[in-house]
Amino acid sequence: MSADPGACPGPVDLPHPAARRAAMTAPAAAPSPPPRAGRSAPAQAGLFLIAAAVLVASVAASVRIGTTDVGWTDLARVLGTHLSLGAEPLPPLVDSLIWDLRLPRVLMAALVGASLAVCGTVLQAVTRNALADPYLLGVSSGASTGAVTVVVLGVGAGTLGVTGGALTGALLSFGLLLMLLRRTGLDSVRIVLTGVVVGQLFTALTSLTLMASADADTTRAITHWLLGSMAPARWDAVAVCAIVTPVGLAVAWLCSNALDGLAFGADTAASLGIGVRRTRLLLLVVTAVLTSVAVATVGAIGFVGLIVPHGVRFLIGPLHRVLLPYAALAGAVFLVWTDALARIAFAPQEVPVGVITALLGVPLFLLVLRKRGEL
After folding, report:
1. What is the separation of C-alpha 367 from the centre of its chain, rounded to a whole number of angstroms?
2. At a CB cut-off of 8 Å and minimum separation 6, what does 350 contact?
3. Using N-to-C axis directions, what is the helix angle for 320-344 and 235-254, rounded to 10°?
4. φ and ψ of 352, to 5 deg
5. Quick one: which of 181, 268, 274, 332 is 20 to 30 A from 298 by CA?
6. What does each C-alpha distance from 113 to 89, 183, 230, 308 come to in angstroms?
7. Structure confidence by residue, pLDDT tens digits, 77-107
8. What is the pLDDT of residues 334-369, one digit of tens each?
């Protein structure tokens, strides 16, 4: 194997059996329990199918939850109508409630939850930082600046304009990050420090832009968006996420063995034949794109990308080939139920889902740290 094979065209083969075992058992970002052994391939496949079934059941159950309850029969009839299965149509109001509001919202929660959980898992390995999350690169702050600028200046129209502004701001912040890292290198410490600097810069720009707007209604709307909400989710946004998310997850999974090596340190990864710089750059781009699309659509939702990887790693083990799919499923299920709780906790008033994830995330994260013996 050459010393620089490039950036994860597929799972990286570790050359020596002992080295392969060392890298595969390496903890991501912090000491982890040893990988769970003894499960055969059929058992692993069965367990994954059960987890996927839990996600499907969670999506279906969450669609029914809200200020107006929806029956299983109504849900089946709506799906049958819109999928041309010959079901009897429901009244337009009920049909619109389920098909135009509830279903895209719940599917968006699943896609965003999966994206954020996988991004957190990848960044914790790339940076070897247990506190790394999808917003480490400053992308969230850039998206916030773009969205706030669009609203304050009145550019664009409605949700589409806010989404476009947020995506533009996210890409600009990531471009600035890459420019700065080009001069300093892509080692884990510089990635973390540069990401913090870029995030603080765009946070300051967001504050200045908000101060320029004296409109209380505009400020309230912006604040609601900054806290994260699934309410704006519509089918066009779901379609974009449904394309971007699986592609990003597939690229990350193809780099599973490289992530195992990077979690053990750059020198160790390089000695195993992994192109460290190219792999890190590829994974940074993947996580930035996934985070940008998620934040541009629903705002910044914290703690999903921080607590889910730690919890799944504690239960499954640190091998990224197994960890990444389970993290995606766990993140999807977590955000689906969190969004359902946000809809009903203070009904009829809806709470931004980012508030609920923070309230749940803090005690869950402390529990994970305690179980890992770090608290």
Report:
1. 21
2. 229, 231, 342, 343
3. 160
4. -55, 135
5. 181
6. 31, 33, 11, 9
7. 888 888 878 778 888 888 888 999 999 999 9
8. 999 999 999 888 877 888 898 899 888 888 778 767
Label residue 37 by pLDDT band (50, 70, 90). very low
- The token pair that represents 17 in the structure block: 């059996």
Which residues touch 53 (CB under 8 Å, ≥6 apart)? Answer: none
Closest CA to 330 of 320, 352, 315: 315
Q: Residue 291 in contact with residue 140, Cβ under 8 Å? A: yes
CA distance 289 to 274: 23
Contact 163, 297 (CB under 8 A): yes
Give me the helices (H) in the chain, please.
17-24, 41-64, 72-82, 92-96, 103-127, 139-153, 158-184, 188-211, 216-226, 235-254, 256-262, 266-271, 276-298, 304-316, 320-344, 353-371
Question: How many CB atoms within 10 Å of residue 215?
Answer: 11
Q: Are 314 and 326 in contact (CB under 8 A)?
A: no
Task: Sort 68 into a burial class: Cβ within 10 Å, 0-12 / 13-18 / 19+.
Answer: exposed
CB within 8 A of 59, min separation 6: which ones?
106, 107, 110, 336
Rounded Cα gap, residues 28 and 255, in angstroms: 14
Name the pLDDT band for 40 (thresholds 50, 70, 90).
low
Q: What would the two tokens of residue 123 be?
A: 């960044």
Where along the chain do its domains lie?
A: 38-371
- How far is 120 from 104, CA to CA, in rounded Å? 24
CATH of 38-371, one of 1.10.101.10, 3.30.700.20, 3.40.1010.20, 1.10.3470.10: 1.10.3470.10
Sole residue written with tokens 């806010």: 162
Token representation of residue 279: 């792999």
Crossing angle (nearest 10°) for helices 158-184 and 139-153: 140
Residue that is written with structure tokens 């409109």 in the block: 215
> pTM for the complete prediction?
0.83
For residue 15, how many other CB atoms are within 10 A of its CB?
A: 11
